[in-house]
């Protein structure tokens, strides 16, 4: 009975090795479409995914969507069309470590860095000095508060 941990280890090590070498699951058609309609920009040698859609004619309003934890910009997929009918531009990104953005390890992720990435995206899109609306939830709320600060 003393060697139960040894037996568990002998069984667990090969299972862990197999798990670590499994390919990631295939993307659903909806996620493939979401990814293909987006782009990437580089922030400090890291690739960050975003979507930017033109919408309502006659409006000059821009909305930036900040997703929650532990999800991605795809959180906004079901209301994207409605937002494009209200706003001139609708922009969403995957925070670093989420969705289609890079997931560096080891890395000291922080709310401050995520806010800097949002600011970097706005610079990249030529919107740094434009007034933008923020729509956020969950984790994105904290990033939005840092941006407002």
From TrEMBL:
Pfam families reported in the protein's UniProt record: Abhydrolase_1
Oxidoreductase among keywords: no
A cellular component annotation (GO) from this entry: membrane
Sorted UniProt keywords: Signal
Signal peptide positions on this chain: 1-20
Source organism, top-level taxon: Eukaryota
Record flagged with keyword Signal: yes
A GO MF term: monoacylglycerol lipase activity
GO biological process, alphabetically ordered: acylglycerol catabolic process
Domain AB hydrolase-1: 62-140
InterPro entries: AB_hydrolase_1, AB_hydrolase_fold, AB_hydrolase_sf, Epox_hydrolase-like
Family named by the database record: Belongs to the AB hydrolase superfamily.
Record-given protein name: MEST protein
Phylogenetic placement of the source organism: Eukaryota, Metazoa, Chordata, Craniata, Vertebrata
